[in-house]
Structures are given as C-alpha cells and as structure tokens.
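Agenda item 2: 4'-deoxy-4'-aminopyridoxal-5'-phosphate complex prediction
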Amino acid sequence: MTATDGTVSQTIDRLIDAEQERFAETHPRSAEAWARGRKHFLYGGPSHWMRRWAGGFPIYVEEARGCHVRDIDGNDFIDFCLGDTGGMCGHAPEAVTRAAVRQLERGTTHMMPTEDSLWVGEELTRRFGLPYWTLTTSATDANRGAIRIARMITGRDKVLVFSGCYHGGVEEAHVELRDGQMQMRNMIHPNGVDHARVSKVVEFNDVNALEEALAAEDVACVLMEPLMTNFGMIPVAGGFHDAVHEATRRTGTLLIIDETHTLSCGPGGYTRLHGLEPDILVAGKAIAGGIPAGVFGVSEETAARLWKEVPHVNPRQRQSAHFGIGGTLAGNALTIATMRAVLEGVLTPKNYEKMIGRADQLAGAARAVIAQHGLPWHVTQIGARMEIMFSPRPPLNGAEVIATRRGNLETLLHAFYMNEGILVTPFHTMFLMCPATEDADVDKHSAVFGRFTKAVIEAGV
Ligand code: PMP
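Presented output:
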C-alpha cells in the first residue's frame, strides 16, 4: 500500500464512521432492538445473514410492501436488495398473499400432493424446458439433491465450481482459488469435508482450465450460475457456455445450472433466454414468493439414468422410499399454492418486461453519473438485475474481483445509501427490480448516487 492509498483508506474509514453515527442517531429503536437481539441470538439476529448491514446494524422491519420497507423508527426505504432475491416478487404481492391465506386455512403440510402441484409441474417444464421436477425447502437443498443425483448416476465424487461462486450451504462449493491454489472461501470451516477429494475449482470464463479439470473424468458435475452474481456480477464471456456444454458432454460430466439468482433474466431464467441445455436446473428463493422453496428439474436422460439407480417404488413391497434428498416439508401445500401464484400472476412475461425496463433506467442513470465525473467505475446489467463496481470494466473472473475490489468504498456507499433510504444487497452493490419498482424509486437512486459521487470526489477518495 502506498502512502496515498493509506491516506485514502483513512479518509474512507472516517467517512464510514460519520455515516454510522448518522445512522445510529436516526434509527434509535432499531439500534436498541439490535442490542437486545444480541442477548439471545448467536449473531444478533435470527439468522447470521442479517448482520452485515453497513449502517452498523440492520433495520428492524415494521412492514414491507412492493419495493418499500418501513422500519420500526418510521423510516421508509426503497428496497433494491429484496431479501437478496427472495423478495423479487416484491413484498406482500397480492396474488401470493391471497393464495397463502387460502391454503393456510386448508392445511399447509401433509406429505400428500394437492391438485395445484399438477399445474406447477406443467408450468416449470413449460418455462425451463426440463421434463421432471422435485421441490425442496431451499435452493441450497435443491443443489444438494442435484449433486447427489449426479454422483449416483456417474459414480464420481468430485464437483467442479467456479472461483467466487455461491450456491448456498453446499459444502463442495465453499472453495475458491487464492494464488492459484484451492482454499476455503471466506475462511469457512471445512466442516470435516476433505475438499481435495470432493471439489475442484477453476476461474470463470477459463475454457482451458475447465477442460483440464474435466479431462481426468473424475468430476460428477459442473455446478454453475450462468453468469456469476454472488461475488460482484461477472458476465459470461462469448462462447463460454458452448465450451462448458461441449466439455461436459465429452467427459461424461453432468451440467447443473443454478438459476436461483438469474431467474431475474426472464420467465425461464438465463437458460431459456439463451437456449442452454443443462442436465439439471436449480432455482429457488423468489420462486414461491418468499415462502421457503427450491426446485430442481432434470432432463429426460438424467431421469432415465436415475430411475435405474432408484426405481419408482411399489408400495406393496415395503421398499425404502428414501434416498437422501429433500425433507418432509418439501413440496407442501402452502409452497405449492404460493409457487402457483408466483408463476401464474407475478413473475409473468409482462412483469419481467417492466422490471427489466426499470433496470435499464437505473443502469443508464448510474452510467451517466459515472461518465459525467469520468470515474473508473462501471455498471453491469442483466435483465432485472444490475451492479455498480468500483473498477473500470467488468471482471472476467473471481481473481479479477479480488484484485480490483474496493471493499471499504463499497461499505461507505452502502452506509450512505442506508442513511438516504436505499437498500442494496449488503455483500456487494447489486440491485434487483421487482414488479412494483417505479420510476420514482429509480429516480431517487439516481439522485442519491449523484450526491455520493460528488461527496467522495470532494473528499478525494
Ligand atoms: N444458489 C445461488 C446462486 C444463490 O445465490 C443462493 C443464495 N444466495 C443459493 C443458491 C442458496 O439459496 P438459499 O439460501 O435459499 O438456500
């Protein structure tokens, strides 16, 4: 670090302190609630994911509607975080609320299907193209099920992921490349798993590394997002999907595409938009309107191979029907009812058009601010999702994110946003539109981002 870098970083730290003080003053009830929460929750809130907010502590939510959240201090926020995608339908969407209440009155979980499930199965196939589906209670669990199937039918143990990925609590994916070596991501504890035996990791968009890693034919599956959204957005390079497809076919490796976040690209995710042909497709989070849910769909060939390993059971023969996938609550009547409401009435082509239009506006305005000041920053947008990064061009892979990330400036921006009534994903500067995001919400962001930009230029950071 040079002396100038050191001074800049001290200035940023001072500015963060000032923003956090401002936040504490204007959010006293949330501050007090957070202090109380710390007495009874391991990490302050009911989930440790709730603690990363740059204001210093999370707001406690009184009510959330559409893309707005009101906290217990009476402050209003425009929510571009949307529960890190779980809220992509918008908060309290009418169709989901009605379906949920109706189902709550008729029973939520009985380990038997409801007729709504028939509609859901048909619609999942129509949207994503894969013929056979299974529900889980989270995207993590859907990924786990998909990996288990890939191992069962290939007889191989390893899972290949891309450095910087996130696929939930999936152990095999908790690795990244540091200085060319596979290491645990974020210093996550290996949890007794021998990652050298079960994981391989290469850089995104690196065809040679991928081909080399698959050449030994010991990889059960490649697990990937169609473009990376969890380490700052990393766009996919032209031809990379063709190369992944070809290399997985050639080496007998299954391809699992995780659309949990990229569902924001359109009604059938990135897969349908770009004609990808995964063996297994995973989705989750928003797919049941915020009711915990995940899904995975498998191709005809994958299903046929699986049925050889695990045939349909004949109830007369008292066979074990359990093969380590999903849980008792998976596919319950409440999830099915809300998933139907989402697919039928919320994540519709018309609403996607609106959401993508808003993201176009938000991205355009942010680019204009950056260009006006000649800053070495950039904006990436795909469908209803966009990201601002403090580097001159989109990263090619995880290594470039590590090399260019300005984490403290991101924290400053996020703390500034919180004080100005804007929420973005706390892990990086990603925005998501929901059907209820309006022009005024986008315009407010443009003004706030303009003010932030001026403030940091004046401060010399
Ligand atoms: N896959 C992807 C691509 C994700 O981004 C996430 C969560 N951020 C997950 C899976 C896990 O989802 P959940 O926490 O709902 O299990």
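Discussion summary: The chain has two domains: 3-88+349-459, 94-346.
Owner for follow-up: CH.
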